[in-house]
Amino acid sequence: MYDFLTGPMLYLSLAIFIGGCIWRVVWYIRGLDQKLDRVAYKAHLEHGLKHAARSVIAFIIPFGSHTWRAKPAMTIATFFFHFAIVGIPLFAPAHTTLMDQWLWIAPLSLPQSVVDFLILMFFISAAFLILRRVALPEVRILTNWQDVMVLAITIAPFITGVLASTHTGDYQFWLNMHIFCGEVMLIAIPFTKLSHFVLFFMSRGQLGMDFGIKRGGLKGTKFAW
Amino acid sequence: MPQGTLCRALPVQNEEELKELLADTGGKKYYAEMQELDVNADKLAATLQKTLKSRLRTWLNICAKCGMCAESCFLYRIHNRDPKQVPAYKIQTTLGEIVRRNGKVDNKFMQHCMYTAWAKCTCCNRCGTYCPHGIDMGVMFGYLRGLLFSQGFVPWELKIGSGMHRVYRAQMNVTEEDWVETCEWMAEEQQEEYPLLEIPVDKEGADIMYTCNAREPKHYPEDIAEMAILFHIAGEDWTVPSKGWEQTSLSMFAGDWEACTMQVKEVYDAMERLKPKRMVGTECGHAHRATVIEGPYWAGREDGLPPVPCQHYVEWLAEALRLGKIKIDPAKRIKEPYTIQDSCNYVRNHGIKKAVREVMSYLADPSYYRPMEPDLEHNYCCGGGGGFNGIGMYRKERNFALMTKRDQILATGAKLVIAPCHNCWDAIRDLEEHFAIGIRWSFLKPLVVHAAIIPEHLKPQEEEEMEEEA
């Protein structure tokens, strides 16, 4: 099982993840329609891209936008959640060693203490996000089973990873489960709302272009995101 | 497929049909027919296939359901934070559901969508700026309105409004003759005080072509007079077109994109016919949006820009004061606290943030300014935007929605509200009528006309002077 998960299944899930993400980006850009969206993308492309970058940057920096500043707890939770979900798979020492071995790439490792801290913050953030989803009427009303599934898919690799790395119970079982859950997440990214992994940049960027080209940007106004 | 005689998928085709609709007081028969109106699911599915492209599909699919849009919506806040007023919920349970069912929805569902699209969203676009993913639910509600209009599920007043544009190329039944006569009448009325004042019609190659809102010739001709006085004092070379003078678009509120195109092309034709250096539009938010911001796309213009540079009236006023074309009498400056209503349509959605404040800096000492909280591009809708003001069936909901602006204004402590947008002006008038909080509200034109110094050479000559000259 371990060989399968770290062999064909790993390469398949990576291929689906990378191919799927590229496909989502290409599909998004190809589907932009000047007349239907009512944004003159082509005529003011350079200008639009500058405003797209402004908009994306305002939202990928903690407290960089009005919305993040309005909800500080949510902002802290969101950013730790995302830092962990992107940072740990790529930079945890246990992963970088394997990446070197299997994928012949060796990114820099984060110190284990930083990884441990991020994992702790991830679980606190995840608990906050779940609690928020249950407790706040304005979030609860939006939630359906798919949202719960997606949350479960993103949390599962962390739970199984902790169980495996701490040798809790059957090490090999939890290791296999950890790899499996990670691969499920990779495969789910292009097919679920986890596609915001790439589509966030497209969508936020598009609204930035919209404001940059049509809604005031050409007049020299910068929207105060 | 039962289609009513008044309520049906087909838009208004001619004056006779329009008159029939108008004769149906309050839309009594119209709404009764709507109860029986069938949904053409195949047509709806085909429209989705053709027009719901990657941007809207992505917005519907990647919504994180985080609820961060909730607080951005003034309707959510004023309805005691009712979760059914969360923008994401409103759009997911209407457009989202139509897409999930690929158009297979029934009459009852379409009526639910109609209510949500026109009574629970004013398309102010504030939510899009607060959504981390940049999902603009105002844009999506605009799209939904288009789908609903194409199936005949549109409030009676907006079916009439879009019909007006189709028949008269104006939001009210003002003909070319009515318009030109009103201009002549207003010019004559002012000539006692401003003997050389004219309202030049169809002058080619002028510096400015002025366009307005049909309600001005129809109900508020003094607005046209004030516009003429200010251009006259400023010494502008200006004109109005006999055709293509109407800048508004109730068809935009209705989601009747075909009528939007007809309307805006009429204005662009006037620009191309008269070749002005620029166009200046009246103090109206949605008119500016329709003609200057969205219009180029309806007219199929590749650069997304109108044929000539266009300005909102507040931009022209700010420029005229800055350049000293209009001078303010210091004795007539406003000497009381005032606040400013920032229109969604040209402040949030076209970045015209400084002009009104610049104009007011000439009209009053800055110490009198009491900003609303929030303001500028983050300001809340007046409560009556997106057509909400004009829909009789939703008047109760609209009046309720006005409380946001009422409370914002009250918090400033100012009794004078500067509202350079017809929709905002109407909403603030109605909120005063409804809640009687003791405020006054005004466009900029009358304030500037009142305080402007009339240059000597434009004043009527005294009898003695005339005798001397004789």
TrEMBL record, chain A:
It comes from the Bacteria. Keywords: Membrane, Transmembrane, Transmembrane helix. The keyword Acyltransferase does not apply. The chain crosses the membrane at residues 12-29, 73-94, 114-136, 148-165, 177-201. The keyword NADP does not apply. NCBIfam families: sulf_resp_HmcE. This is Putative HmcE, 25.3 kd protein in hmc operon.
From TrEMBL, chain B:
Coiled coil: none annotated. It holds the Pfam family Fer4_8. GO terms for molecular function: 4 iron, 4 sulfur cluster binding; metal ion binding; oxidoreductase activity. Residues 338-424 form the Cysteine-rich domain. Keywords: 4Fe-4S, Electron transport, Iron, Iron-sulfur, Metal-binding, Transport. InterPro entries: 4Fe4S_Fe-S-bd, 4Fe4S_Fe_S_CS, Cys_rich_dom, Helical_ferredxn, HmcF. The keyword tRNA-binding does not apply. Residues 60-135 form the 4Fe-4S ferredoxin-type domain. This is Putative HmcF. The gene is hmcF.
